[in-house]
Structure formats: structure tokens, C-alpha cells
Amino acid sequence: MNILAVGCHPDDLEIGCGGTLARYAQEGHRVTLCHVANGNMGHVILLPEELRRIRLEEAQRAGRLLGAAEVVTLDISDLAVDSNNPQTVRQMTELVRRVQPDVVITHPPEDYMKDHVEVSKLVFDASFSASVPHFPPETLGEPGPRVAKITPLYYMDTVAGVNFLPSEYVDISALIEIKLRALDCHQSQIKWLADHDGIDFLDFVRTASKFRGLQCGVAYAEGFRPCLTWPRLTTKRLLP
Hints:
Layout: E1 2-7, H1 12-26, E2 30-37, H2 48-66, E3 70-76, H3 86-99, E4 103-106, H4 114-129, E5 153-156, E6 168-171, H5 176-184, H6 187-197, H7 201-216, E7 221-226
Parallel strand pairs: 1-2, 1-4, 2-3, 4-5
Antiparallel strand pairs: 5-7, 6-7
Helix pairs in contact: 1-5, 2-5, 3-4, 5-7
């Protein structure tokens, strides 16, 4: 299968579904990671352009550890993600058409900050728009696939699992260390959270994964909810 995972910032996928993505890759599926925002505002000392460069490099290293075939970015500044921006919608629509995903994973509609919520709406809208041959009209005649099927969409966990009740789980017990190693690639954030907020974020994420594991009877797990809209529902098990 082709898997498309879309996070807001360069470390969001590692936090929410890194073990699942690594498991997909190990099982032979093609995994594409996309982050919409470039993470340029995520530091107190580092200036945005320098941090943008650092975080793009961190994302590539993390993606390689997870076994992703490709890591892409829409390169939008933090706090500027707008699901109604025509250029952003077109970028995401074209990505969906190029990847031709069998399943899409992104943030839930209710999350802790605007950029995450906007990414959730963007992915929901663009993954439908990608099925419409005449959208956007200015791309008619361009090379590449004109449509993608409307695929099942899964929402990954929120940070610390706040206000998120999974209905499906993925056992990542054998992959927890890979998940954490990939997350550790994002040193600009790991170190900043330790220095600025006193948070050991690797332990934070390990604990959240252990909590989800307790809910479903394994050592470590990640939780998901399907998007319950027609025609995205299926009888197939698409999570690994």
C-alpha cells in the first residue's frame, strides 16, 4: 500500500504515529511523510530562518530512521497555516494525487493549536478535492495523475492523549525504540523543551505510548480514530 502521513510540524508524526509508520515500512509498504509547517517559530533563541533549515534536516534524518520512502514539506511558516489558502490547498491536492495513497493519517480535528487544526481540515478537504478531475481548473493539461481515489482517513493521537479516545490501536512494542530514536533526531525541539520547559520529551512520549499499550493489552501502542464520513469507510483493516 501507499501510506501518506501528514503532520503539521516536522516532529508531529514521530510523536503521534512514528511507530505505526515504521511498522508500515517494515512490512513493505511505501510511506510518504509530509509536514505542512516548517517549524521556524519553535525556539526562543534560534531565529526563524536558521531554525527552518535545522528542522528540515532533522525531519529528513528522522524519516530515514522510520523507513520512509520520502519526506516532503509544504514549507509554510509556523502560525500561518490556512486550510482555505488556494495555493496551500493546491499543494496538498497535488501531493495526494502524486502519492496515490491507500490510507491517509493526520491530526484530529480537535487539537491544541490552530496550525494542527488547520492541517486536519486541509487534509480532509484536499484528499477529497484530489478526486475531482477539474480541480483546480488551471492544472488541466499538466502531466501527472488527474485524480486520486477518496481514501480512508485516520486521525492520530493528540499530545499526551488529551481529549482523544482511540477506537483502533497499533502494537508498536517492537518499534518503540525506533520511534524514540526518530523523535530524538529533532534535537532543536528535544533540547529546547528540556532547557526551556524542563520536559524530558522522549520519556514523555514513551509514557504516552505505554499508556495506550495498557489500554489494549500490549507494552506500547499508538491510538487512532477513523474519519467516519462517506465514502471513506471500509471493512478492511488498513492499520498494521
